[in-house]
Amino acid sequence: MDRTTVPQQPFAAPVLHGPDGAPYYLTPAAPLTAPPALYHPAAPAPVVHGPALAPTTVYLPAPPPAPNPVPARDPWPARLLAGGVALGAGGLGIGYAVQAVAAAAGSVGGLAALGVGAYALAKTTGSGGRASGQGAVNVHVNVSNRNR
């Protein structure tokens, strides 16, 4: 492809703005009502800070927290009660978990038994004319002992 024959794209002209910041698009449908000028935004408002602190102000660190009071004696009955409540709650939780597992196993076992029963019924019922070994069978057995 020869680049000398390809028309080049013209560059877009910068958008001009009026004094109020409204853009002017130079199209024949919208004639200019004022001379075009580049838009320059207004300078930001100056930041106003609060009053300055006096240089002699000293900020002291917060006092350390007061230590917890030590009980006069060991509250062993309360600890035993709390431990008993925790053990009881844990036992109940384990009991509920075991009960749920047993119920799920029973459900799965019941479904398996129903499936085996349905399979057995499907395999044993059918037309009697099949040669699959089902139905009445005549068996004749002759046993002779010649060594007598």
Describe the fold and architecture:
The chain contains one helix and two strands. It is an all-alpha fold and 148 residues long. A two-stranded antiparallel ribbon has the order 1-2. A hairpin with a 5-residue loop joins strand 1 and strand 2. The longest helix is centred in the C-terminal third of the chain and has 49 residues. The model has no long low-confidence stretch (mean pLDDT 75).
Based on DSSP secondary structure assignment, what is the total number of beta strands? 2
Work out the strand percent: under 5%
What is the percent of helical residues?
A: 25-40%
Helix and strand element order: EEH
- Taking all Cα atoms into account, the compactness measure Rg is 50 Å
Total helical elements:
1
- The stretches of 5 or more residues where confidence is low (pLDDT under 50) are none
First-residue to last-residue Cα separation = 114 Å
The biggest sheet, with number of strands, parallel, antiparallel or mixed sense and barrel status, is: 2 strands, antiparallel
Can you give the mean pLDDT? 75
Structural class: mainly alpha
Side by side, the strands of the main sheet go: 1-2
Shape: flat
Task: List key phrases describing it.
148 residues; mainly alpha; flat; 1 helix
Q: What is the topological layout?
A:
Elements: E1 16-17, E2 23-24, H1 76-124
